[in-house]
Structure formats: structure tokens, C-alpha cells
Design goal:
The complex is a heterodimer of chains A (256) and B (114). Helices cover 70% and strands 2% of the residues of chain A. With 256 residues, chain A is an all-alpha fold. Chain A has one domain. In chain A, α3 (54-62) packs across α4, α4 (64-84) runs antiparallel to α8 (163-186) and α4 (64-84) packs parallel to α9. Chain B has one domain: Helix Hairpins. Chain B is mainly alpha-helical and 114 residues long. In chain B, 64% of the residues lie in helices and 0% in strands. Classes of the chains: A mainly alpha (256), B mainly alpha (114).
Chain lengths: 256, 114
């Protein structure tokens, strides 16, 4: 199909979708209304389970099985990326050279790193009480580690980041979620049922299995992000194509 | 205008699809897919909004306070996580496409290569 014909098909499709979508919007419940049947029931259920953060209660208690699926998507995507970004034939690994970093950036990154790490762990641990949880906190923890790359250099990052260990932790996090679900079966209840004592409302130990599942997810997400970034950084800094390298060298020689 | 937020979500979706279909660079196409997906965040949060409602977190608000719908917020969280990882996977595919075929223009990638 030529580009022009494709544009016409696209325009027709977009206009059709826009018309149908606009018609559907006109029949939706009005924006900002008070009728939220699922929301109201979710809030009631969360308060009964003594989980102050309703969103965490929905994710890790009421819809915990769906979150297992979500976690598995994350796991599969990381696995796919690891497989795709291997060193292929005709490529070789080089040692990245140390790079100089402006002292202000270095100072700031080193100062913020422990703070960011602590905030990440705090967000994971307080998922049942305040906005946050395993997914959000995990990303903060992984980002904190990469401040080393921004502030010092790649080799410093590599020293605190043995990728194999993080790959293992990724699998352990995913496995821990599955095992915690099976604990519900062993206790004579349903898979991923909240079987632990619910604790006192609005304390760190409230919510039953919610904080434990949050910890498992936090571990998985933090290691998943570390592994993902490690693969992309290796592609950018360590792995070079021998053909392309030869071509560049030839061009440089010609110029000289 | 009680339907404006929904229409905004639809507009973001269409803008993303338009970008996807007319893209001349695979990284741009992956970015457009992220835009398309972000329309679902806007739609979900618009569906869950309650006028005068606060965040559905009861650690510092007494139970019984009107709050926005927590179910759609949980769905938006799922959406963000899946979106981020799928973006990473697609970008990895782009890296390998560039290496194998030497181009990132989708129009030049029509030929089969054994």
C-alpha cells in the first residue's frame, strides 16, 4: 500500500473510532458523580481488612490474583529483554573507560543516593498505610542504585550490582508471591486469601498478608528494573559490533 | 461539560494511534504506543473521579470521608507497570532490529530476510 492510501485508511479509521467513542462518552455516568458502586464496596472491604490504603487493599488483597498476573507480565517482559539483549556472534565485550563527572553532580548524587534508597524502602514498607507499595518503592530503590552511574561511573555501578544476584532476586520475588498465595491454601482457605492476623488499623503490621506481598513485589520490581537497565547499559557501553568497529577504524584511518 | 475528561482521553488515544501509523522511526513508534496507552490512565482516573472526594487512603482521613474510586486507581497502577515493561521489551526489539537490518524506519523493514 502506498503511503497516501495508508493515510486515507487511517483517517477513516480514526474518524470512525472518534465518532463511536464520542457517542459512548455521552452515555457514560457524568464526570465527578457520586455513583461508584465498586469503589464504595472496595473501601468498605479495605476497612474491614484494616488496610488504610484502599488501593493496596484492592491490589494485594481483593484482587491479589490479578496482581499475580501483572507480576508475571513484568517477569516475562524482563526475561524477554534479557534474551533479546544478549551478546550475539560478531560482537565483543569491551571494558568501559572511566569518565569524568563534574564535582557538583558527583557530590549531589552521592548525597542523594542513601536518601533515595531509604525513601524507596520506606515506600515499600508503608504500602498498606500510605500511597505507594511494592511497585512504586521498587522503582525508587532501583533508581537510587543508578545514581552511582550518574555520580561516579559505570564501573562503580558494576561493583554494587552483580547482575546475576539481581536476576536471582527477581525470580525469588516472583516465587515468594506464588508461595504466599499457596499459604492461603495450606491454612484451609482460598489461594491468596488474607489469612494472617489483621493487626491494629493504621499501624505498620496491619493488613495481614498485604505488607508481605508488597515486600515480595518490591523485591521483584527493584531487581527487575536493575536487570533491565543493566542490559540496556551493557548494550550502550560494553558490547560493540566488530564489523561496525572495523568500519569506524577504517574511516578514521582514511581521514588521517 | 461533564464529558470533557472522557473526550480528552479519546483524543490522546487517537493522537497516539496517528503517530504510530505515520511513524518513520521505531523508537518514535514505541513512544507513540506509550502515548496511546496513557489515554487509558486519563480515562480510568476520569471514570473514578468523585467531586469533592479525597485520596482513598484512610491513614489520616477518618473513615466515611468521600473518596475517589480506588478500584480504577489500582487498575491504573497495573496499567503503568505493564506499560513500562512492554516499552522496555519493545525497545530491546528495536535495538536488535537496528543491528540485524541496519535501519529503524518501519517502511524499509518490509522485505523478508532469512
Amino acid at each position: 500500500m502506498t503511503r497516501r492510501a495508508r493515510l486515507w485508511v487511517l483517517t477513516a479509521g480514526l474518524l470512525g473510532t472518534a465518532a463511536l467513542f464520542a457517542a459512548a462518552c455521552l452515555r457514560m455516568p457524568p464526570f465527578g458523580g457520586t455513583w461508584h458502586p465498586y469503589g464504595d464496596r472496595a473501601v468498605q472491604a479495605a476497612l474491614l481488612q484494616r488496610t488504610a490504603n484502599t488501593v493496596s487493599s484492592v491490589n494485594f488483597d481483593q484482587r491479589a490474583f490479578d496482581t499475580l498476573g501483572e507480576e508475571s507480565i513484568l517477569f516475562a517482559a524482563v526475561l524477554g529483554t534479557v534474551v533479546l539483549l544478549r551478546r550475539t556472534s560478531g560482537e565483543r565485550r569491551v571494558t568501559p573507560q572511566p569518565a569524568s563527572v563534574p564535582p557538583a553532580v558527583r557530590r549531589y548524587a552521592i548525597a542523594v543516593l542513601p536518601l533515595a534508597l531509604l525513601i524507596g524502602l520506606y515506600v515499600v514498607a508503608h504500602g498498606q498505610l500510605s500511597p505507594g507499595g511494592g511497585f512504586q518503592g521498587g522503582v525508587v530503590v532501583a533508581t537510587a542504585l543508578h545514581l552511582l552511574y550518574v555520580g561516579v561511573d559505570y564501573r562503580a555501578l558494576e561493583r554494587v550490582r552483580p547482575v546475576g544476584l539481581y536476576e536471582l532476586a527477581d525470580g525469588v520475588g516472583e516465587g515468594a508471591y506464588v508461595v504466599l498465595g499457596a499459604a492461603g491454601l495450606l491454612a484451609g482457605s482460598a489461594y491468596l486469601a488474607n489469612i494472617l492476623p489483621l493487626g491494629t488499623f493504621n499501624t505498620l503490621s496491619s493488613g495481614g498478608t498485604v505488607p508481605l506481598l508488597n515486600a515480595a513485589v518490591g523485591m521483584e520490581v527493584a531487581s527487575a528494573v536493575v536487570v533491565l537497565l543493566a542490559r540496556f547499559l551493557a548494550q550502550a557501553l560494553e558490547i560493540v559490533d566488530e564489523k561496525e568497529e572495523g568500519r569506524e577504524r577504517g574511516e578514521r584511518r582514511k581521514r588521517e | 461539560m461533564t464529558v470533557l475528561p472522557y473526550l480528552v482521553a479519546g483524543w490522546i488515544f487517537l493522537a497516539g494511534v496517528h503517530g504510530l501509523a505515520t511513524s518513520r522511526h521505531l523508537v518514535h513508534a514505541v513512544g507513540c504506543l506509550a502515548v496511546t496507552q496513557s489515554a487509558t490512565y486519563v480515562l480510568l482516573l476520569a471514570v473514578g473521579y468523585r467531586r469533592g472526594g479525597t485520596a482513598p487512603v484512610f491513614s489520616d482521613t477518618p473513615p466515611g470521608t468521600p473518596v475517589v474510586d480506588p478500584v480504577v486507581q489500582a487498575l491504573a497502577l497495573t496499567d503503568v507497570v505493564v506499560g513500562a515493561t512492554v516499552t522496555a521489551l519493545l525497545l530491546a526489539l528495536v535495538v536488535q532490529t537496528r543491528k540485524r537490518h541496519g535501519t529503524v524506519d518501519p517502511d524499509e523493514l518490509s522485505g523478508l530476510k532469512g
